[in-house]
Inverse folding.
């Protein structure tokens, strides 16, 4: 039996207008899967995993490099499973998952610890990136070049230009000031322009 | 199931307890009963008066420290049969009342109230802070309370009026009626029953009403800015005022009124959903019946 | 090439300059061809970043995740060559089990879990066919089945009126679950119906737990 809006359509003509959002069906299904997963439905969670793993794994790889990306990506999903009850369905599931992924990545970084300063402006670090690459394939160049950026600049670049966070948010996440975030972004972009196709 | 006091008296086995204890501010009252009644009222003295009628087979134990006054009904062998408590406490005393075949009532409290029973009604007038009322086979009624309010029944209705704060109401087989509510966060859900909400809709508030087999009637004040999401499988939606849909899929549609800052979620699988202005919901009930005849 | 104009090109690109700063920079750009080229290159870097493809990991990470969160997936059992069926419980599983267990007195716990907690993998088929619910996770189905079993065993402890009330209301909820399931059969991707089914199933679980608490309180 289909849904009916009897009173509205009959008594108030021209007021009810419908704008269909093509993505909404997919988002609805995800929100439903999130609700199911929150109540223990593993298959619903697997569906969410399949939809989002590529993006999460790429984010992890770009932020921390390929070496531990598989482990950290797994950690993201495991953490998402335990935190599902906090997903309120206000925003898209992907947005929530992404923010969680960034938190997991950054938390790991601070526990692993690097002796090298994150914000490394010394010349020799930049030379490695700014030199002309040998490999022919364009997109691999660019991704590889991102990987060769010094850590602080790389993370700012990934968070700002790939993930779309604002400087204020990035500064907050990385524990730096907005000015540093802006200058790191600029350095990263300046270095990466040599790896665009000619 | 409950024998009356008169019967007990006639059998010559009624007994009475009546004792008054001084208490400090901040102490709580805990009453644990099996069959009978717990009725609590308040006064301005710093003392607790415990009066009770019970059969000679039952005993009442009272245990008082600076932090609490603990009252328990005990039977000679197993649970007590019938104890009717009449307790008077300071207005701000926190109350934790529980029973099985017990009706619980509270009048005039300005403190925390927790009341739980199985086969019995819970009726509270007052309460502040945490107010949590539960029954399985019994109505839950609350008025004039403020704070974090949680009302739960299984087989009967929940009624709340003149309350303010965060409200959560849940039952399986009963109606939920919330009127004169001042809240920024209300969640009411039933399986077999109607839900009526006539209260404030505050900016940034969240309101969720959900039933499987029953109607939803929600009042939206004129100046309110709300984003409304309606979902139903087999029901009609209607509104006393014009609304403009922004998104419609099978079974769900959304619309926004004004600033859209409050969020209302309306879900009824098998029932109708109706939005009206405050004060119009009752009148509206009669109109619905007329419309159904036309269909 | 580190003049102060170049340093501000990214901010200009992102719209982070004040109106005055913007005007000044644009005036400079009009006169500085190198800066214009640099600006264009920066734009293309940003565009390239936004066009990057996401690549999934080379290995399928799901089996590892599933094992960790205690969820059974058929793929996992096939892939795991060692054929292990670890019954270690993760925090979420333990927490869920603890909720169920906390509601039981020590006596009833023995009735419910004879030797050890129910294995999510073992009884799956049996539970699924008995309960006749939608394909929810085996763990949830196991919880419901275990509590139903417990209620059947312990209902003698509750008086008949309470039992009747609880069974009547379980029936009401079961009817709602069946309604949602048959609606879903026709429209499986529907978000509202999926959510509604999940909600009613949770409510059934809650009522069963409540019944279990009441029964154990009488022991």
């Amino acid at each position: 039996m289909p849904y009916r809006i009897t009173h509205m359509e009959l008594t108030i003509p021209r007021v009810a207008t419908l704008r269909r959002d093509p993505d909404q069906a997919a988002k609805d299904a995800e929100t439903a899967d999130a609700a199911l997963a929150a109540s223990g439905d593993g298959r619903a969670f697997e569906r969410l995993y399949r939809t989002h793993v590529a993006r999460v794994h790429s984010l992890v790889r770009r932020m921390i490099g390929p070496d531990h990306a598989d482990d950290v990506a797994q950690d993201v999903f495991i953490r998402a499973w335990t935190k599902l009850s906090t997903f309120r369905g206000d925003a898209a599931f992907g947005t929530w998952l992404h923010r969680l992924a960034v938190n997991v990545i950054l938390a790991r970084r601070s526990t692993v610890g690097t002796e090298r300063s994150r914000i490394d402006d010394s010349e020799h670090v930049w030379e490695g990136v700014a030199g002309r690459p040998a490999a022919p394939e364009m997109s691999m160049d660019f991704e590889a070049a991102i990987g060769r950026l010094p850590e602080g600049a790389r993370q700012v670049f990934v968070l700002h230009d790939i993930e779309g966070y604002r400087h204020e948010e990035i500064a907050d996440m990385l524990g730096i000031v907005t000015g540093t975030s802006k200058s790191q972004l600029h350095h990263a972009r300046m270095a990466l322009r040599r790896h665009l196709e000619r | 199931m409950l024998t009356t006091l008169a019967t007990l008296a006639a059998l010559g086995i009624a007994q009475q307890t009546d004792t008054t204890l001084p208490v400090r501010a901040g102490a709580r009252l805990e009453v644990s009963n099996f069959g009978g009644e717990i009725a609590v009222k308040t006064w301005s003295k710093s003392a607790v008066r415990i009066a009770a009628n019970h059969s000679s087979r039952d005993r009442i134990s009272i245990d008082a420290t600076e932090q609490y006054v603990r009252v328990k009904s005990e039977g000679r062998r197993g649970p007590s049969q019938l104890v009717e408590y009449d307790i008077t406490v300071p207005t701000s005393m926190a109350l934790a009342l529980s029973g099985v075949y017990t009706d619980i009532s509270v009048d005039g409290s300005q403190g925390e109230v927790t009341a739980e029973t199985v086969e019995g009604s819970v009726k509270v007038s007052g309460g502040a802070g945490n107010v949590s009322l539960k029954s399985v086979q019994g109505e839950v009624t609350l008025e004039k309370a403020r704070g974090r309010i949680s009302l739960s029944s299984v087989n009967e209705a929940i009624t709340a009026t003149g309350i303010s704060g965060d409200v959560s109401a849940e039952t399986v087989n009963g109606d939920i009626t919330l009127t004169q509510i001042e809240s920024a966060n209300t969640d009411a859900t039933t399986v077999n029953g109607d839900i009526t909400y006539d209260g404030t809709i505050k900016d940034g508030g969240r309101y969720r009403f959900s039933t499987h087999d029953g109607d939803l009637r929600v009042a939206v004040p004129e100046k309110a800015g709300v984003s409304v999401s309606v979902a139903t499988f087999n029901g009609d939606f209607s509104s006393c005022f014009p609304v403009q849909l922004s998104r419609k899929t099978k079974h769900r549609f959304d619309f926004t009124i004004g600033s859209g800052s409050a969020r209302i979620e309306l879900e009824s699988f098998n029932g109708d959903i109706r939005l009206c202005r405050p004060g119009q919901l009752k009148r509206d009930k009669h109109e619905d019946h007329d419309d159904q005849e036309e269909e | 090439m580190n003049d102060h104009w170049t340093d501000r090109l990214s901010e200009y690109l992102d719209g982070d300059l004040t109106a005055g700063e913007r005007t000044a920079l644009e005036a400079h750009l009009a006169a500085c061809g190198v800066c214009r080229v640099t600006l264009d290159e920066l734009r293309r870097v940003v565009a390239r970043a936004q066009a990057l493809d996401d690549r999934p990991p080379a290995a399928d990470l799901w089996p590892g995740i599933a094992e960790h969160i205690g969820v059974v997936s058929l793929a996992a059992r096939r892939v795991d060559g060692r054929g292990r069926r670890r019954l270690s419980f993760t925090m979420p599983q333990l927490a869920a089990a603890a909720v169920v267990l906390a509601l039981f007195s020590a006596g009833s716990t023995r009735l419910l879990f004879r030797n050890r907690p129910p294995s999510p993998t073992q009884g799956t088929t049996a539970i699924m066919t008995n309960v006749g619910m939608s394909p929810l996770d085996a763990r949830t189905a196991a919880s419901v089945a275990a509590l139903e079993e417990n209620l059947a065993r312990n209902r003698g402890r509750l008086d008949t009126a309470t039992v009747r009330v609880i069974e009547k209301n379980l029936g009401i909820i079961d009817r709602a679950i069946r309604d949602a399931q048959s609606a879903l059969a026709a429209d499986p991707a529907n978000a509202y119906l999926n959510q509604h089914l999940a909600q009613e199933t949770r409510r059934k679980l809650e009522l069963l737990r409540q019944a279990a608490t009441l029964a154990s309180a009488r022991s």
